[in-house]
Design brief:
The chain is an all-alpha fold. It folds into 2 domains: 144 residues, no CATH class; 115 residues, no CATH class. It is 66% helix and 1% strand. The protein has 15 helices and 2 strands. A two-stranded antiparallel ribbon has the order 1-2. The chain is globular, with a radius of gyration of 23 Å. 31% of the residues are buried.
Length: 309
Amino acid sequence: MTAPWTRLRTGWERFWFTPQSTAPVEVIRIVFGVVATAWMLSLAPVLTPFFGPDAAIPDRPRPALAWTLMTLVGGTPLIWVLWLLGVLGAAALTVGFRTRLAALLVFVVMVSVNRQAPLAFNAGDGLMRVISFYVLLMPAGSAVSVDRWLADRRGVWSFPRRAPWALRLAQIQLSVIYLSTVWEKSGGTLWRNGTAVSYAMRIGDLERLPVPSFVTDSILLTQLATLGTIAAELAIGVLVWNRAARPWVLALGVLLHFSIEVSLAVGFFGLGMMTLYLAFLPPERAEQVLRWARDHRPRRRRPVEAPVA
């Protein structure tokens, strides 16, 4: 009885706490920082209509501990101060300047906005909030960052080894999202009879590019698309933990979310999911990607000096 328990404990500790390169964390930080900056900027047109003096979204009771800073700044010009802090935090997160504080600012702003007006946002906005929390927990400024450059200018492109427990939480979150989605869809009539995709493609408010009618009107094609979506999400949720199958199911996921983005306006959900995909990027490959970006970044040309006569 001792040997199985010992193996289980050893595997548990190796999964959560065996130090590994922080390169995947840095890739996530940079990509999420860019996406978070875009998310913050997308709030600018709706900030005053939603949260200004004549807010279209009234204050409402919230569950206990469901805090939001909008209760303090809503209806005043301070909403723009909070928004600006979110923009600056997202930009600082991208470059890794005061990384922990920047991640905290992004998380606070995202939580405040989402909780103040939950009906005005969708699952993509909630996903962005969740990712910001995981980035807050990660050692995201340990390399390829302004923080590392200020601490040790020669070590910017060296990657320290840290316990990956926060990265593991992001990986588990990805799997949980897909498996819970499959569970919910399996109980829906439209998903079981294969017509859900056809209905979704014909919602005018969500339409980005029109889908040809021969697709939405075809029972065979819509059933293939509907059941294929469920099968793809189940495969990703399960097989992403298999090293051999992982590249294939993640590529399938990219195709799935790209097809959704092309046809439907679903906010930041696709970008958020593909950001979570980076949690499964092997450390050695993440280091290669970052060093490749370093070696191929644009360089300022030095002025050519005129020859001395």
